[in-house]
Write a structure and sequence with these properties.
Blueprint lengths: L1 E5 L3 E6 L6 E8 L6 E5 L7 E3 L5 E3 L5 E3 L5 E2 L3 H9 L5 E5 L12 H10 L1 E5 L14 E5 L2 E6 L5 E7 L7 E6 L6 H4 L6 E3 L3 H6 L12 E4 L2 E2 L9 H14 L9 E5 L3 H21 L1
Parallel strand pairs: 4-9, 13-18, 15-16
Antiparallel strand pairs: 1-10, 2-3, 3-9, 4-5, 6-7, 7-8, 11-12, 12-18, 13-14, 16-17
């Protein structure tokens, strides 16, 4: 069974979206089978926080993970999406603060750093686990929002969003990594927000580091900071979030992932359902 890790380490610094704190991230090669995991090097003992579905502790406007001792790392989805989107199975991610920096709001800086580092194959000596094959659809719903995994011969992500703001409106996009590269089709899409929600979110102690430099912001008259990188940049960014959240499974089963008006919470619920089904399959195999 072949896995991959980085050829060399890289370092990136920036401001966290919600904390507003400057943090430095160093991403290093990791041994075969170690997976992707965070290390809070600013805390005593440098606690490890695994990038797994079991570690999820919070999903309000970002995905947050917690380690065995309760130490946390927030807004992990863009970096994890870049790692899995570029094919990085094993990586040690050292962070000197509570949140992964937002950078320009997309995964582009991460993807460019991974591409510059390059990847090397790793041969595992262990007997591989039987691959999990999705045989029945899995649906997770909340109101009119949903996310699903459908049996498919090809991996595909299809997403829909619907907003009152005319500049966003109703958007759908379907992306297959077998047809378009993650680096060109998904990674450049930036996070976006609504001007009418900014004050409420700041009063709730969120988006302290959000600016027009690291997020697209829209009001009823249009975008406050154009131009967009894609005409449908918002929905492409939602696919980035979905890929990042599903990366917590370790290896994604081949499926058609379908979402509409979903959230980090629904993404994680789907990942948990897939994880439960995979565990049940392995127990009976």
């Amino acid at each position: 069974m072949t896995q991959s890790t980085l050829k060399s380490k890289f370092e990136v610094s920036g401001i966290g979206l919600h904390s507003g704190e400057q943090t430095r991230v160093r991403v290093l090669p990791a041994a075969v089978g170690e997976g992707r995991y965070f290390v809070r090097i600013d805390l005593p003992g440098a606690p490890i926080i695994p990038a797994t579905i079991e570690a999820v502790c919070q999903t309000a406007l970002s995905t947050e993970l917690a380690g065995a001792t309760g130490d946390q790392i927030r807004t992990v989805e863009h970096l994890l999406g870049a790692l899995v989107g570029m094919g990085t199975d094993n990586a040690r991610i050292e962070v000197d603060g509570p949140e992964v920096p937002l950078l320009d709001g997309s995964a582009l800086v991460w993807v460019e750093a991974i591409a510059h580092s390059g990847l090397i194959p790793q041969e595992s000596q262990e007997e591989p686990n039987p691959s999990f094959v999705l045989t029945e659809p899995i649906w997770v719903r909340h109101g009119d929002a949903f996310v699903a995994a459908l049996p498919s011969a090809q991996t595909r992500f299809s997403y829909g969003i619907d907003f009152e703001e005319q500049a966003i409106g109703n958007q759908w996009y379907s992306w297959s990594p077998e047809v378009e590269s993650f680096a060109s089709a998904i990674a450049p899409a930036r996070t976006f927000g609504l001007a009418r929600q900014v004050e409420q979110l700041r009063q709730a102690g969120l988006i302290k580091g959000g600016t027009l430099e690291n997020a697209l912001v829209c009001d009823r008259s249009g975008w406050l900071n154009p131009p967009l990188r894609f005409a449908n940049e918002p929905v492409r960014h939602k696919i980035l979030d979905l890929v990042g959240d599903l990366s917590l499974l370790g290896t994604l089963p081949k499926a058609h992932y379908l979402a509409y008006k979903a959230s980090h919470n629904l993404h994680v619920q789907l990942a948990k359902a897939l994880n439960s089904q995979a565990s049940a399959v392995l127990e009976t195999s």
